[in-house]
Amino acid sequence: MQFTSIAFTLFFTFVFGLYWFICRKNLKLQNILLLISSYVFYGFWDWRFLALLAGSSAIAYYLGLKIGGSEGKTKKIYINLGLILTIGTLFYFKYFGFFIDSFANLFHIKNTLTLNIILPLGISFYTFRIISYFLDLKNNKLKPETDVLAFFNYIAFFPSMTSGPIDKGGLLLPQLKKERVFTEEMAADAARQILYGAFKKLVIANSITPITQNIFQNYETLSGSTVALGAILFLFELYADFSGYSDMAIGFARLLGFKITKNFAFPLFAQNIAEYWRKWHISLTSWLTEYVFTPLVIQFRDHGKRGLIAAIILNFILIGAWHGPRFTFIIFGLLHGIYYIPLIVRDKLNKKKKFSGSFPTLKELGNILLTMMIVCFALVLFAAPDLKAALGMYGRIFSFSLFSIPQFIKIKILGLIGILILIDWMNKDQEHGLDIKRFNPWMRRGFYVFLIFMIMYYGVFSNGSFIYEQF
Predict the structure, then answer these.
(1) Based on C-alpha coordinates, what's the Rg of the chain?
(2) How many CA atoms within 13 Å lie on the side-chain side of 441?
(3) What span, in angstroms and rounded, lies between the C-alpha atoms of 292 and 325?
(4) Number of structural domains the chain divides into
(5) Are the C-beta atoms of 257 and 180 separated by less than 8 Å?
(6) Fewest C-beta atoms under 10 Å: which of 3, 151, 300, 305?
(7) Quick one: 107 and 236 in the same domain?
(8) Do 236 and 109 belong together in one domain?
(9) 346-363 burial string, b = 16+ CB within 10 Å, else e?
(10) Do 266 and 202 belong together in one domain?
(11) Which helix (H) or strand (E) holds 363?
């Protein structure tokens, strides 16, 4: 059930009506409805995996209570058991087949073990919530949750369970245990964010998808300039698709009275790779910064800049591996880690850049374009189905045909990307891309009409799936 589908529109309208008009004065009823809605939403994809979702939630809830009632070695055993079971489940469904297949191919053995393993939708997102819960209990950042309804809702919260953002327990659990308030201002802002997310997904991402698919599937017959164009377009496709989903997820959550994690902060205007990752997939990068990078920095603190480089590279290898069991993802992460080295050597890792005026200077524009260039270079690995295809694409890009006129240039696509950039730039200092409360009412209405017109006229409704659902 996709956010942009008629089925979801009907589903959410029904849930919204029950939630605010029937259950409004009863928090427990709201949470029961929310949990049922989340399981219906997830079961719409494949009801067989509801048992896995419920079982994972029940085990985490039970172990959380046991952790809270124990001390010393016993507490450590329960924490480690929870982490082993959660990570083991993720490993089995997402990575077991990869390792078995690789082993079988290495020794030329026929493999029949992994043929029937299906990757459950959103498993990387909801298992990371469970892992963070156990780690927060370990670090005494959370107390064990005793409200079973709140805990199960935290794991299965449907606006963000299939493609994020990855919310931590400290943010979402308290909201699930207190009365939610509905205000017109909040609803209006949520609707604006949903509208802009739908525009990015249906108009920008879905319009670019056929072009990038054509380029990446036929790269061997295309010029280097065309393959390079495909990498550039893929950046805009991925951004519009993923940030569009995040905007809608945040908007739908706000309509239900929740504030969830911001996932994008206009990364297209980042002036270096560190700033880019501070603005891109924020919930994942902040999760890994807290639970992986910071402990590694502490561990390597005696090694100075070399230790910091090692921590960042290991962190980004894990970011690559999080996306799936492919060597291309591992190298994708490694490459981004390597991009950080010049910043570390020059002590500019944490230096934040602010724009000096209403328009970027030539230096700022150059920094933006350089950052986009190295990101697009790495995205070839992200888009390629395997390492052979990635190397083939790089081979085409670094051929003499790079200087030829690329194919598949469409004025419409360039115009749509230009509109995306303009709207983002205009609101780059706001909470989201359509945060236009500061505009007068007539200008706001004009924006809404314009985006609705663009969706109705240029929207591509045939491709409802989101790229990050596969992760």
Answers:
(1) 23
(2) 0
(3) 19
(4) 2
(5) yes
(6) 305
(7) no
(8) no
(9) eeebeeebeeeeeebeee
(10) yes
(11) helix 362-383
C-alpha angle with apex 78: 74 to 81, nearest 5 degrees? 135
CB 189 within 8 A of CB 236: no
* Domain end (from 160, 180, 200): 180
pTM greater than 0.90 (yes/no): yes
Q: Kindly state whether residues 219 and 256 are assigned to the same domain.
A: yes
Residue ranges of the chain whose pLDDT lies below 50: none
Tell whether 135 and 238 lie within a shared domain: no
| Separation CA 466–CA 311 (nearest Å) | 31
Residue 112: the pLDDT is: 56
- Whole-angstrom distance, CA of residue 239 vs CA of residue 266: 9
Alpha-carbon gap, residue 262 to 253, rounded angstroms: 12
Which amino acid is located at 257 in the chain?
A: G
Tell which phi-psi region holds residue 140, choosing left (phi > 0), alpha (psi between -120 and 50) or beta.
Answer: left
Residues 6+ apart with CB under 8 A from 471: 124, 163, 322, 323, 324
d(CA 299, CA 45): 42
Among candidate residues 180, 207, 222, the one where a domain is terminated? 180
- On whether the CB atoms of residues 325 and 98 are closer than 8 A, the answer is yes
| Burial class, 458, CB count within 10 angstroms (exposed 0-12 / middle 13-18 / buried 19+) | middle
d(CA 240, CA 356): 26
Phi then psi dihedrals of residue 260, to 5 deg: -110, 180
- What residues make up the domain containing 132? 6-180
C-alpha span between 331 and 94 (Å, rounded)? 18
Q: Tokens 């053995």 belong to which residue?
A: 109
Q: Are residues 374 and 446 in the same domain?
A: yes
Do both 159 and 91 map to the same domain? yes
Helix (H) or strand (E) holding 125: helix 123-138
Looking at the fold, whether 199 and 232 belong to one and the same domain comes out as yes
In a domain, 313, yes or no: no
CA distances from 212 to 137, 163, 227, 252 (A): 44, 22, 9, 30
In this structure, how many other beta carbons lie within 10 angstroms of the beta carbon of residue 250?
26
